Structure formats: structure tokens, C-alpha cells
Amino acid sequence: MSTNLVTGKSKKHKQLSDMIGYVLNSLQGISEKDENEELINIIFRARQEMLDAQSYFDSVTDAELIDHAIYKIEAAKSQYVYLLKLAKDKGLSVIV
Q1: Which residues have C-beta within 8 Å of that of residue 11, sequence separation ≥ 6?
Q2: DSSP 8-state code for residue 16
Q3: DSSP structure string for 34-94
Q4: Domains in the chain: how many in total?
């Protein structure tokens, strides 16, 4: 289980790093095409995280972990919806 925790933290750290990189790149004036591609990549990773959270919820058997699983789903869903809104505001279409 500790391996999953490390992987989960590593995945979250990578996603947070990607989001920060996206914001910094947009502030530094990186080309819009590169910026859009990066946003789309972040959206795909966020979608995968949401699917992983749902899979985790489906596999939880311990009643004490159900709240944790629900929290993971809601957090991943919120992030995904936020990123889709950013893409929409930029006029991008993301087909998943």
C-alpha cells in the first residue's frame, strides 16, 4: 500500500507541477500553440486521474476508506471541470 501512496503523491506532484508550468509559461509569453497543447495534455492527465479515482472507489471494500475514495473522486472531478472550462474559455475543443 505504501507504494500506491508514493505513486499517488508523485502523480499529484507531477500534475501540480504541470499546472504551475502552464501558468508560468503563459506569463512568460510562450507561443499560444505550445500553451494550448500543454493545457490539453494536462486535461487528459486530469481525466485519467478522475477515472483512476472512480476505479479506486469501485475497489474499496473497507468502510473506513469509502469517504476517502469519494473525496478523491470529487477533487479529481473538480479539477477536470475547471481545466475544461479553461480550455473552453480559450476556444479549444477537447474530445475525449
Answers
A1: 49
A2: H
A3: HHHHHHHHHHHHHHHHHHHHHHHHHH---GGGHHHHHHHHHHHHHHHHHHHHHHHHTT---
A4: 1
- Taking the C-alpha atoms of residue 24 and residue 30, their distance in angstroms, rounded to an integer, is 9
Q: Measured in Å, how far apart are the chain's first and last C-alpha atoms?
A: 30
In a domain, 22, yes or no: yes
The structure's pTM equals 0.65
* Residue 62 within any structural domain of the chain: yes
Q: Is the separation of the CB atoms in 65 and 45 below 8 Å?
A: no
Taking only the tens place, the pLDDT of each residue in 35-89 is 888 899 999 999 999 999 999 999 999 988 999 999 999 999 999 999 999 999 9
Q: Report yes or no on 78 lying in a domain.
A: yes
Range of the domain at 7: 2-89
Query: Which cell is 45 given?
Result: 492527465
